[in-house]
Design brief:
alpha/beta; globular; Rossmann fold
Length: about 300
């Protein structure tokens, strides 16, 4: 549903004027006219999000196991991302830099993978399934949110060589603030890996409000290439590689017989040309000297 240009809100990323472009199930999504960012407005309060995760409210989060499983599928471009992540694990093991933080740890599968490479691991997960995984697999998964990290004694003086945020960015109330917090705990030269849904994709363009990744109110933010580059630049992070993956079906009824086989081929092609609806991004934190130079040129 489109509204007039008078129905505006400041962009959650770049603060430019944004206009309502979609209404679904009583919620409104706005699109930034400058950076292309798509976001829910009004944005839920932090306490509302906290309560939703603590209660396992499916309006805010779905199966925590699924956030890592599709990274392991060898028939998609996710295999390339998984191979790169394993290289980071191996390089850290060889260099003796092995402090890993998994934000949105879910059931702890990625933490266990890192342990296999000899890394020291820690996770945060506000939902109760994190504590269940911690007990079952003897992992340190803290029941907090990113916004709680600066005030936690457990994070005082800590730095990490690798931080992952798989299917987290879209859930954040304030991605700019949250990324500032995360970057503070990333060691210079360290790696940050994110996966999130993107709105400059074939899936969104062809389906709009019927796009399966519009999950409201849990998914608050949908990044374009430009809006994510703006976010990374504000934190003085360098994008080393970005991989797109067609996560949702291209064809209707794509789970049925021959249609499913054709759809898998089309998803592969869509991913290869960069129009997939999930993006996996590898970033690195610049040295303190590079950060100082970049900050001088920023408003």
């Amino acid at each position: 549903m489109r509204r007039g240009r008078e129905d505006t809100s400041p962009c959650a990323i770049c603060n430019a004027a944004s206009y309502q472009c979609i209404e679904k199930d009583g919620y409104r999504l706005y699109r930034c006219g400058e950076c292309g960012h798509l976001f829910l407005y009004p944005i839920p309060a932090l306490d509302e999000l906290r309560e939703g995760y603590a209660a396992e409210n499916t309006d805010f989060v779905r199966n925590p196991e699924s956030t890592f499983e599709h990274l392991e599928k060898s028939e998609t471009t996710c295999a390339r991302a998984m191979e790169r992540l394993d290289r980071v694990f191996r390089q850290g093991e060889a260099a003796g830099s092995r402090e890993f933080l998994d934000i949105g740890a879910g059931a702890g599968k990625l933490m266990r993978r890192a342990q296999g490479f000899g890394w020291s691991v820690r996770g945060i997960e506000p939902g109760p399934w994190g504590q269940e995984a911690a007990e079952r697999h003897h992992l340190e998964i803290l029941p907090i949110m990113i916004e709680d990290m600066p005030s936690s004694d457990l994070f005082r003086g800590k730095g990490y060589d690798l931080i992952t945020m798989i299917d987290v960015l879209e859930h954040l109330q304030d991605p700019v603030r949250a990324m500032g917090i995360v970057t503070r705990f990333l060691n210079p030269g360290g790696s940050l890996v994110l996966q999130f849904p993107c709105c400059d994709s074939l899936g969104f363009w062809s389906r709009r409000r019927r796009w399966p990744l519009i999950l409201l109110p849990g998914h608050i933010h949908y990044f374009s290439r430009k809006s994510f580059e703006f976010l990374a630049g504000r934190q003085c992070l360098s994008i080393d590689e970005a991989i797109t993956n067609a996560h949702t079906p291209v064809l209707p009824r794509a789970y049925i017989g021959p249609i499913g086989r054709v759809d898998r081929i089309l998803k592969h092609l869509v991913s290869q040309v960069g129009l997939g609806d999930m993006r996996i991004v590898f970033l690195s934190r610049n040295s303190p000297q590079e950060v100082d130079v970049q900050l001088q040129g920023m408003p």
